[in-house]
Amino acid sequence: MNEEILDLGFLDVNIYSCISSQIDTDRVVITDKQLDHIADHHPEAYDETLIELKSILASPDYIFKDDNHIDTGLVVKAIRSADSYFYIVVKVCTNSNGGKFANSVISGWTISERRLKNYLRNKTILYKK
Fold first, then answer.
1. pTM confidence score
2. 91: which of 73, 84, 105, 127 lies 20 to 30 Å off by Cα?
3. In angstroms, rounded to a whole number, what is the distance separating the alpha carbons of residues 14 and 114?
């Protein structure tokens, strides 16, 4: 069984190099497995996250260090129309194996302003717009 891969476009390596200086490709994807994960674990954010995903990737407000996973950033963007903050997890690719692999969106959900303020106090900020 092959996993479907959806191409989301390209990352701005100048922004995302804060996660790793070894980013090997600017291509970014999401798999159907990860889409299922978002739908199952964060159903309240599924539709809006998918609608805003490219915007979040293109112009994040913050990227935080993921202390639990190497070469992974926690990307946050305020979406004014929804009065929420969208949070996605991006794994950057440091070995594309000749273009076979790409940066990958792992998950996505909404967070409250209170949660964002907590992150700003307690997490390592790698990037701020």
1. 0.84
2. 84
3. 29
